[in-house]
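request received
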Amino acid sequence: MTCVADCAAEARIDRTLVARALLGHDRRAFEQLMRRHQGMVRAQLRRLLHGDEAAADDLAQETFLLAWRKLDQFRSEARFSTWLHRIAYACFLQACRTKSWAARHAQEDGMEQLPAPTQAMDLQLDLAHAMRHLSTAEQTVLLHSVQLGLSHEEAAYVLAMPLGTVKTHATRGKAKLKTWLSAWHAATGEERVP
Amino acid sequence: MNSIHDDDVDALLRQSFDGPTSDAGFCDRVMQQLPPRRRSSAWPLAAGVLIGAVLCSLSLFNSPLWRAVWHGWLAGEWSSSTIIMLSTMAGLSVLALGWTLAEADDH
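response:
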């Protein structure tokens, strides 16, 4: 209940700042919007780019410049943060199509297509390893719907995917992670899952 | 078979997420790159309204109904055609006002 109220209040603040930025061409209002949301947008891009901070910050800059140019296209049907995540994801896809980054990481990903982990390891490392064995779509959906805290509907909007596809990827991804992590769980015989 | 549940996987995934990235001068760098916003010029809208009003007037002045309304209005006679025409204009004005308020609320 509190979360819903907080989210509604945050959305109202965003809408007010957008209106100020649009009507008065107020750069300070846009700066406030950016300060409120840059952290999650950059975190999203760092995850999508497998930790490449420089490339993520370049894309984040591109995202905010694009948001500034297209601010009048923002409709309040989505939260401002969700709209930004959508632009960021579109910038990421564009970068994958046009830059060598994708080829370099595809090669690295290819090298990591090993059998799923079965040995007992540190759980976080195991999870990170297991995540890399998920399909790109499953990783992307879990990033947005679990780690970034978006609802399935919002994830579908950001990723421009049908809602059913998002739900399917989330379910399959979690099922695979459960299976792989169960091996670790059984091997340690300890209850270390929070 | 699996002792790990969906909620556990969610919790693990959230734990492994570092959270929002700290600013570290990012916003200042982007603000320096921000181009000035292009002000949308108002003349196309004004020209459209003016042309529309002129065309509407021209077509109405040739209408016998409008002439009857105009003469009735000048003579202070509230004929049925005068009332219908004025009611229609008032109704359309209210609709336009409602539409404007709805658009303003969206923005």
